[in-house]
């Protein structure tokens, strides 16, 4: 099969980690007889430096005309980088928000699971970890506070800022359906997270999720308040299968869950629209402090490439091959600095990429 | 000194734990020659049952005319209790939001610290706990998404809900000043948490906090994005002294921090206005499942009474006496069920209250 992949290397460690993911994709192509045609576009700080904006319309067009997007990471040091002196809508992150909206990527899947090999890196006590945990956070990505109207104005001499949190039933229904669909392929449990004791948008959320649930009688649905969920993730992460939530709550909870897994450098994510199209990226950031030093962990990006093959190209065997290769490399004791522990073999970004590619 | 305390026992375990806190307050009164005059008001489910509303205006008046409020907990089981069949503005929680607003309690202080005696109950690995941690979350309590306009309406046949997140510079300034004031009495570090890469309200928040910081040259200020803060609390809670944040972020992060401390049953909180007046309550909920069984841990409420004496009545010696009594009871090995561990002595709610009172 021939497929077009838009590649966004981005800023910081982005270029290094994407290069390793492409190394792995190339190996898959060779082995399984596919052809992946890459087109690079700029997004984030590197686009600001070249075009003055974090994402051009031309770049969006290229992405739209491809079959999937592989993204590294964008942004720099918010205190020192000149990018953060610009108006908010010109900063690196604005590029990310723009591409999500323009491509209609409303369904953000963020797995957070414990790698048995990385148990030691998990911040939680052993009796809480138990046999490990494995959850999928399904975050709504194109609504809520991120895309509502906002303004800052002077009201009777007092500077006042307003952001709006809006959801309509259609936006909630389509993400809920995705959440239940995924749950059917997993352990058939959905925890819908909201703040229904305060927010109207959460009450609508809960109502629509209850309606959607009727079509999935096999799936167990529970509702949980966001503050309680922030606690439960720490107290007993094993209780979760699919967490279904709106944009801002999903931002906070998915980062908390990622850190709890202790495997941030290993966590991939997918952002999907109504078709097979999707954008795939590591859950971690651009780590400008270690950029260009061959120290970054490319595994999250490699696993994002695996998600790309599975979700956008229906290449399950190929995705399994990548996942297994990663597993074998970890079992063989190879570690980048972020997941290093005693008696393991420390490798750099490039070597880690080659090790995984060689295992395929 | 004679002082008027409004007592809100509330729902669930509320009555039991408040009774024990009053036992301790009475002992303090006797020992230090004060007189505490209590007036009970109803709030939450018990008020709904009697008056049809979660908080009457008469009850608010009584609270306003007292020197401080001691609150147990309100609310019931959200799936089974008939209170949750009512319209949102008639549910138990609406009483809590109303009293916060009516009394102008904009500054919510939520300490989250590890009790050395309860190290085992902390969910984090030993090397992360280190010598323990001790942070104070300063949450804005009368603005943001909690009190902005909201509506649910039919827009061209599609049900749509809108909540508004509003802050003006004055609301931000007064809570920031409180945060820096508290930091001056602690380790002189403020972490201001926002989502300035997305929200206008967060950008205004950051700007005003920077302005306020100029008056506190001794205090180290850092800004942190809310998603990162949710991670850092798990990764390294020791890094925090005062966390300063808006209403919804504070709700989520304070619960996460409380759970991380492993001492939820021990954590008190204060909600203050512009004067010495304040409302004091445990950080935990109403635990309807164990209500009336003499199993609840009254320590968080007892420590809330201690905060009441310290912040509203300037009774530092008296507050120290309570804090020390709690410490001694823990050192002597007494534990309620929620904090029980091997070789300790299990006691009920009443006995725990008596033990603390006797130590004073
Ligand atoms: C960079 C930022 C705008 C973004 C978000 O908040 O969505 C990031 O935190 C994420 O989670 O992908
Ligand atoms: C009961 C609820 C409205 C309340 C809040 O969200 O503020 C509670 O969670 C709290 O933190 O005091």
UniProtKB/TrEMBL annotation, chains A, B:
<keyword id="KW-0520">NAD</keyword>
<keyword id="KW-0432">Leucine biosynthesis</keyword>
<feature type="site" description="Important for catalysis">
    <location>
        <position position="195"/>
    </location>
</feature>
<keyword id="KW-0028">Amino-acid biosynthesis</keyword>
<dbReference type="GO" id="GO:0005829">
    <property type="term" value="C:cytosol"/>
</dbReference>
<comment type="pathway">
    <text>Amino-acid biosynthesis; L-leucine biosynthesis; L-leucine from 3-methyl-2-oxobutanoate: step 3/4.</text>
</comment>
<dbReference type="Pfam" id="PF00180">
    <property type="entry name" value="Iso_dh"/>
</dbReference>
<feature type="binding site">
    <location>
        <position position="139"/>
    </location>
    <ligand>
        <name>substrate</name>
    </ligand>
</feature>
<keyword id="KW-0460">Magnesium</keyword>
<dbReference type="InterPro" id="IPR019818">
    <property type="entry name" value="IsoCit/isopropylmalate_DH_CS"/>
</dbReference>
<feature type="binding site">
    <location>
        <position position="255"/>
    </location>
    <ligand>
        <name>Mg(2+)</name>
    </ligand>
</feature>
<comment type="subunit">
    <text>Homodimer.</text>
</comment>
<comment type="function">
    <text>Catalyzes the oxidation of 3-carboxy-2-hydroxy-4-methylpentanoate (3-isopropylmalate) to 3-carboxy-4-methyl-2-oxopentanoate. The product decarboxylates to 4-methyl-2 oxopentanoate.</text>
</comment>
<feature type="binding site">
    <location>
        <begin position="285"/>
        <end position="297"/>
    </location>
    <ligand>
        <name>NAD(+)</name>
    </ligand>
</feature>
<feature type="binding site">
    <location>
        <position position="227"/>
    </location>
    <ligand>
        <name>Mg(2+)</name>
    </ligand>
</feature>
<keyword id="KW-0100">Branched-chain amino acid biosynthesis</keyword>
<protein>
    <recommendedName>
        <fullName>3-isopropylmalate dehydrogenase</fullName>
        <ecNumber>1.1.1.85</ecNumber>
    </recommendedName>
</protein>
<feature type="binding site">
    <location>
        <position position="227"/>
    </location>
    <ligand>
        <name>substrate</name>
    </ligand>
</feature>
<feature type="binding site">
    <location>
        <position position="251"/>
    </location>
    <ligand>
        <name>Mg(2+)</name>
    </ligand>
</feature>
<feature type="binding site">
    <location>
        <position position="100"/>
    </location>
    <ligand>
        <name>substrate</name>
    </ligand>
</feature>
<keyword id="KW-0464">Manganese</keyword>
<keyword id="KW-0560">Oxidoreductase</keyword>
<dbReference type="InterPro" id="IPR024084">
    <property type="entry name" value="IsoPropMal-DH-like_dom"/>
</dbReference>
<feature type="domain" description="Isopropylmalate dehydrogenase-like">
    <location>
        <begin position="4"/>
        <end position="356"/>
    </location>
</feature>
<dbReference type="GO" id="GO:0003862">
    <property type="term" value="F:3-isopropylmalate dehydrogenase activity"/>
</dbReference>
<dbReference type="GO" id="GO:0051287">
    <property type="term" value="F:NAD binding"/>
</dbReference>
<feature type="site" description="Important for catalysis">
    <location>
        <position position="146"/>
    </location>
</feature>
<keyword id="KW-0479">Metal-binding</keyword>
<dbReference type="GO" id="GO:0000287">
    <property type="term" value="F:magnesium ion binding"/>
</dbReference>
<comment type="similarity">
    <text>Belongs to the isocitrate and isopropylmalate dehydrogenases family. LeuB type 1 subfamily.</text>
</comment>
<feature type="binding site">
    <location>
        <position position="110"/>
    </location>
    <ligand>
        <name>substrate</name>
    </ligand>
</feature>
<keyword id="KW-0963">Cytoplasm</keyword>
<dbReference type="InterPro" id="IPR004429">
    <property type="entry name" value="Isopropylmalate_DH"/>
</dbReference>
<dbReference type="GO" id="GO:0009098">
    <property type="term" value="P:L-leucine biosynthetic process"/>
</dbReference>
């Amino acid at each position: 099969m021939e497929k077009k992949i838009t590649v966004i290397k981005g800023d910081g460690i982005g270029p290094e980690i994407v290069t390793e993911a492409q190394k792995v994709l190339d190996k898959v192509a060779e082995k399984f007889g596919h052809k992946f045609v890459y087109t690079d576009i700029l997004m984030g700080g590197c686009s600001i430096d070249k075009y003055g904006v974090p994402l051009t319309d031309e770049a969006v067009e290229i992405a739209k005309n491809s079959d999937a997007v592989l993204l590294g990471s964008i942004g720099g040091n918010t205190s020192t980088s000149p990018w953060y002196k610009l108006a908010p809508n010109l900063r690196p992150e604005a590029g990310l928000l723009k591409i999500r909206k323009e491509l209609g990527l409303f369904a953000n899947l963020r797995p957070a699971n414990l790698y048995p090999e990385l148990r030691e890196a998990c911040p939680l006590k052993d009796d809480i970890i138990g046999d490990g945990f494995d959850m999928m956070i399904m975050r709504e990505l194109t609504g809520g506070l991120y895309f509502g109207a906002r303004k800052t104005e002077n009201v009777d001499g007092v500077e006042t800022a307003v952001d709006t949190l809006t959801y309509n039933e259609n936006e909630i229904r389509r993400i809920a359906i995705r959440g239940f669909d995924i749950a059917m392929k997993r352990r058939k449990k959905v925890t819908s997270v909201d703040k229904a004791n305060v927010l109207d948008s959460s009450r609508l959320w809960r109502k629509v999720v209850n309606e959607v649930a009727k079509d999935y009688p096999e799936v167990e649905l529970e509702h949980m308040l966001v503050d309680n969920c922030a606690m439960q993730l720490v107290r007993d992460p094993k209780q979760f299968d699919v967490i279904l939530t709106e944009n801002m709550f999903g931002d906070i909870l998915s980062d908390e869950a990622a850190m709890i897994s202790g495997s941030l450098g290993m966590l991939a994510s997918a952002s999907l629209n109504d078709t097979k199209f999707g954008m795939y990226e590591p859950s971690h950031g651009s780590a400008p402090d270690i950029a260009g030093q061959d120290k970054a962990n490319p595994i999250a990006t490699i696993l994002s490439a695996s998600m790309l093959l599975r979700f956008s190209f229906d290449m399950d065997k190929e995705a399994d091959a990548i996942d297994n290769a990663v597993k074998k490399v970890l079992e063989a004791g190879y570690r980048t600095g972020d997941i290093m522990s005693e008696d393991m073999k420390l490798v750099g970004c490039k070597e880690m990429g080659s090790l995984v590619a060689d295992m395929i």
